[in-house]
Amino acid sequence: MFLNAPVGISGEDRLKCSFTMPAKAINLNKYGAAVQISRDLVVGSVILVKNKRGLQVSARIVSQLTATQGVSTYGIEFVGQQDKASNFWGISFPSNTDERPVSRLLTPQRPMLGASLES
Questions:
Q1: What are the pLDDT digits (tens) for 43-78?
Q2: For the chain, what are the domain ranges?
Q3: C-alpha angle with apex 37: 32 to 38, nearest 5 degrees?
Q4: In angstroms, rounded to a whole number, what is the distance separating the alpha carbons of residues 105 and 82?
């Protein structure tokens, strides 16, 4: 979904320095989001994400999507605490959509060996 929300992010950056700072979550979905933050993070690391209602969940950095003018956008996926994560954004997502976890969306799709690329 093309919704966004202010969040707080805390964790360790690429230099192993602890941080807590505001960020912007975009493209929210029930599995996570993309977050825009002016910090260099490590793909695979786990951060804490806090929403404006004070709810906090763990999320894994699954990819770096962009880096422009000192702001990086990372794909994050909630880990553990499914009861907290399922209502983290405070909105209901349709259950019959093609939304999948961010990590699955970022996996390149390859044609099967021997399969024709033409229909």
A1: 999 999 999 999 999 999 999 999 999 999 999 999
A2: 4-84
A3: 160
A4: 20
Query: Class for domain 4-84, per CATH?
Result: mainly beta
The dihedral sign for the CA sequence 78, 83, 88, 94: positive
Report the first-to-last Cα separation within the chain, whole angstroms: 30
- Give the percent of the chain with pLDDT over 70: 79
Closest by Cα among 63, 59, 103, 105 to 81:
59
Q: How many alpha carbons lie under 13 Å from residue 65 in its C-beta half-sphere?
A: 19
If residue 83 lies in a helix (H) or strand (E), which one and from where to where?
A: helix 82-85
Measured between alpha carbons, how far is 8 from 58 in angstroms, rounded to an integer?
Answer: 12
**Bridge partners of residue 54, in order along the sequence:** none
